[in-house]
Specification:
Helix content is 44%, strand content 21%. With 356 residues, it is of the alpha/beta class. It starts with 5 loop residues before the first strand and ends with a helix.
Length: 356
């Protein structure tokens, strides 16, 4: 069965691998023993994932010689905050985890962010591993070492960079995802296709994402790994991975996080594509093609929030620097660019993208 594992190296400091295959959660103990010496593992997960997978992961880790404790927090973006972070840190301290121990993030993007940020700041940093259970976490958030929580002012405004020691992506988990949660991940995958190349993007147009998710995940991870290796701390090229996120994060905030991340990013991507095309920044008509692809994957291509509300929310985004905000412009499928924009022009740009 090991031959069926797709392994993607991520050559950061420290380096690690992303392993993709069915059944990895049930084998996580043996696989992690290759990168971790026997230690205590604190599994951090949420109330949705725990009933599905926590027992399986605990049994595998225990069987491989690890000592396991677990912390379960309420599911949802609304709980990706300082209160939850504090509770996790207090739990790690009560359990007397040391710098030789490890945190395991079991779940989607919120669990990965919470567990990763806790690992980054507990004892000034201990090891952690990612066990993604959603498509969004598999194709994007589990790779690259970005961890964060939301503040009242905006999304992901407090966080740290900490690369995981390993990422194990069990594709069997995708079968348990509701359609809207699967679609959330599709949004990040489609975003990667717009950034990466025509051949990857076309997979989302012809239904390959649903038919062969492991291969698509591997391609998305390989693309992101390359970007992260070249720009680990997001000083340049890695900012391109924020395609669709400036407006997307604003949509999330305006909705009180009732609109999930992937759906918001999809709408943000479609809005930015329409705006860029109307501004003459694209190499041709791409907005309709992107919108059709998003809709085919059960994702929105617009929002009911006004340009003024979205611009106001976006200006608290971490991508702002003084009187400018850096936006990611899709020029054609497979080529995007960074463009500093005066903050006073953001509302008009969003308005151009909201027009039908």
């Amino acid at each position: 069965m090991s031959d069926s594992i797709q392994t993607i190296p991520v050559r950061t400091s420290p380096a690690y691998t992303v392993q993709i295959a069915p059944g990895l959660l049930g084998r996580c103990g043996a696989l992690l023993r290759d990168v971790l010496s026997p230690c205590r593992v604190a599994v951090v997960t949420d109330s949705t994932v725990a009933p599905l997978y926590l027992e399986r992961v605990t049994a595998s880790l225990t069987g491989a010689g690890f000592s396991v404790v677990s912390y379960v927090f309420p599911a949802g973006e609304a709980h990706k905050n300082m209160e939850t972070l504090s509770a996790i840190l207090e739990f790690l301290a009560r359990e007397h985890l040391t710098r030789t121990d490890c945190v395991a993030a079991l779940g989607g993007g919120v669990a990965g962010d919470m567990a990763g940020f806790a690992a980054a700041v507990y004892l000034r940093g201990i090891r952690y591993v990612q066990l993604p259970t959603t498509l969004l976490a598999a194709v994007d958030s589990s790779v690259g070492g970005k961890t964060a929580i939301d503040l009242a002012a905006g999304k992901n405004l407090a966080g740290a960079f900490l690369q995981p020691a390993a990422v194990l992506c069990d594709t069997e988990c995708l079968a348990t995802l509701p359609q809207d949660v699967f679609a959330d991940g599709a949004a990040e995958a489609i975003k990667t296709g717009v950034l990466a190349d025509e051949s990857l993007f076309s997979l989302f147009e012809d239904g390959t994402l649903t038919a062969a998710p492991a291969d698509v995940i591997a391609r998305c991870v390989a693309y992101k790994a390359g970007v992260v290796e070249r720009d680990e701390k997001e000083q340049g090229e890695r900012k391109l991975l924020n395609l669709g996120h400036t407006v997307g994060h604003a949509i999330e905030k305006c909705s009180g996080y009732a609109i999930p991340h992937g759906h918001a990013v999809a709408a943000g991507l479609a809005i930015m594509a329409r705006a860029a095309q109307r501004m003459g920044w694209t190499d041709g008509p791409i907005a309709e093609r992107i919108a059709v692809c998003l809709a085919k994957n059960d994702l929105p291509t617009g929002t009911g929030f006004s340009a003024a509300d979205l611009a106001r929310a976006a200006l608290s985004d971490k991508k702002r620097a003084g009187d400018t905000i850096t936006i990611v412009v899709p020029r054609r499928i497979g080529a995007c660019s960074l463009r500093p924009l005066p903050v006073g022009e953001l509302e008009a740009l969003i308005a151009a993208g909201l027009e039908g």
